[in-house]
Amino acid sequence: MATLEAIKYNGGQLEILDQLLLPESCTFIPICNVQDAWTAIREMKVRGAPAIAIVGCLSLAVELRKSPVLETKEQLHCFIKEKLDYLVTSRPTAVNMQLAAESCLKLSTLLSGDTLVGVTEASEAIVKHLEAMLANDIADNLAIGEHGSTDIRKKSIGKEKLRIMTHCNTGSLATAGYGTALGVIRSLHKANVLDQVYCTETRPYNQGSRLTAFELVYEKIPATLICDNMAAAAMKQLKIDAVIVGADRVAANGDTANKIGTYQLAVLAKSHNVLFYVAAPFSSIDFQIATGEWIPIEERPHSEMTHTGSTRTAAAGINCWNPGFDVTPAELITGGIVTEKGVFKPDQLVPLHK
Ligand SMILES: CSC[C@@H](O)[C@@H](O)C(=O)COP(=O)(O)O
């Protein structure tokens, strides 16, 4: 069965699956411009680091295809810079949108300096660059899946079937398709070596129980849901072989920001001698940040903790702390960082930076 398709793009028409309505309903909504994308990202109708960047960039392609009246390449450059700068403000922790914006502006600067290229050709080249992100992301995820699954199997010799724990949602709903950590799990399943995947509920926003569980059921991958506070017991009693999670931003030293609760899973994995992997495309690595202490962490509304839907479940008047992400120190990433280029120890990343 084909994996879920949450971002649909065809000839300048963009639609996304509204993830706020999952798992009750699969409803696609149109994204007609950059403002629509910014709002959808901010409201988490689309979420997950790669998907945020892809939807942001495709929304700019949609606007450029509608041919705004831009007479010079300087005007074109200012137009896309303004839009990209705005998209980068949608959510702070994932770095993918920022790096995608930098790469697009680099291309625009190159085209601006090329006297043989006119404004229409420059705009078309930028649209082509933005539109290529969908296919590139799927290809990267397939490679991540293969590298990760091969590495886990290599390090689990003697075990016929593997039990994997994962956190948050890193699948087709968080990427252009297939997924990163969930892509590795799909590849293990395809290779017939997956006994069971244990997905955490991922409080307070429940990306695990709402989204990952939805994808796993949809694709008939053997899976069991656990609450976040069952992770230690599951590692001990259910004999988990590896934990594999995604990333919103990896610092140059390998420290990794990912969904809140990732750090505690890494600590638990270490004390239970369970391999801990991060799976992410190179576009999640921020080489401008030396360590994880510089990664901005999004603070989320307290209502996510105090309410379930519109029903208050916490005592009125209680103070809350609701960071959306935490940083896992590189030394806890014992399995490695799985990318489309291979699996690396955290201290091997810097030499790979061009
Ligand atoms: C391939 S998605 C990787 C991460 O973006 C994912 O693990 C995560 O933390 C998503 O957080 P979210 O707040 O749902 O956008």
From TrEMBL:
Function of the protein: Catalyzes the interconversion of methylthioribose-1-phosphate (MTR-1-P) into methylthioribulose-1-phosphate (MTRu-1-P).
Location relative to the cell: Cytoplasm; Nucleus
Name of the protein in question: Methylthioribose-1-phosphate isomerase
Main EC class the enzyme belongs to: isomerase
Pfam families linked: IF-2B
Gene Ontology terms for molecular function: S-methyl-5-thioribose-1-phosphate isomerase activity
Site (Transition state stabilizer): 168
GO cellular component: a single term: cytoplasm
